[in-house]
Amino acid sequence: MQRDVPKRVRRMRPDKEEVMREEVFHMLIESVRFRRNFYVAFALFVLFLGVFPADAEVNGITEEEVLHAQKGWAEGVVSIGGAYVDKKDYNAAAVRFVDAFYGYDQGPVLFKPTKASAVKFRSTKEEALSYFVKGSVPEDHGFVLQPWSNVRFENAGIVIDGDSALAMGVYYFTDATTSEEVEVEYTFGYFKDESGKIRIRLHHSSVPYAE
């Protein structure tokens, strides 16, 4: 009897087309995984922007901006006094000055002027204007109506904290009549409003201690 010999199954090697199909399939799988990870990363990025706005750093105060604000404040004081001497509308100039440099319209302002006793702290715009050019507070004589020919800042230090800053030092007011300088110590606190403008939130002035 003839025995049946089992047939040997010969495995065929995959042709190039099958290899290419497998490679394309794996590439598609990796692409799906990549896209899924990409979308997750993108979602986290969007969430991060919502919690930490991208403009947070952009809106930070710089030392140059503080110096520019001090220069503008000094020029404003001199300008109002000049308008007073020239018999121009110094009251309107004072309103523009307070609106431009202080943050009364944005929130509380802590203002302790140098020459204030009965009303030591000026928490409203009207009280601040009264100190600068006389008004609602009887003790006020109009500090900027001296007038002053120059105001010079000398910062002892400036501290920047994001969108706020502190500056402390001495500023010198030059009397327009006698040319003598009056030394006054100051602390200013600044913040940046929604439009990106530097404004004063804290202003404390005092004469130097004398024994």
Report Rg.
Answer: 35 Å
Strand content: 15-25%
Please give the domain count: 2
- CATH fold-level name of the largest domain: Nuclear Transport Factor 2, Chain: A
Can you describe this structure?
The structure is a single chain. With 211 residues, this protein is of the alpha+beta class. The protein folds into 2 domains: 19-48; 62-206, Nuclear Transport Factor 2, Chain: A. It is built from 5 helices and 5 strands, in the order ααααβαββββ. The protein has helices at residues 16-51, 55-58, 63-85, 90-101, 125-133; strands at residues 110-112, 148-161, 164-175, 181-192, 198-206. It has a 5-stranded mixed beta sheet, covered by helices on one side. A hairpin with a 2-residue loop joins strand 2 (148-161) and strand 3 (164-175).
Structural topology:
Layout: H1 16-51, H2 55-58, H3 63-85, H4 90-101, E1 110-112, H5 125-133, E2 148-161, E3 164-175, E4 181-192, E5 198-206
Parallel strand pairs: 1-5
Antiparallel strand pairs: 2-3, 3-4, 4-5
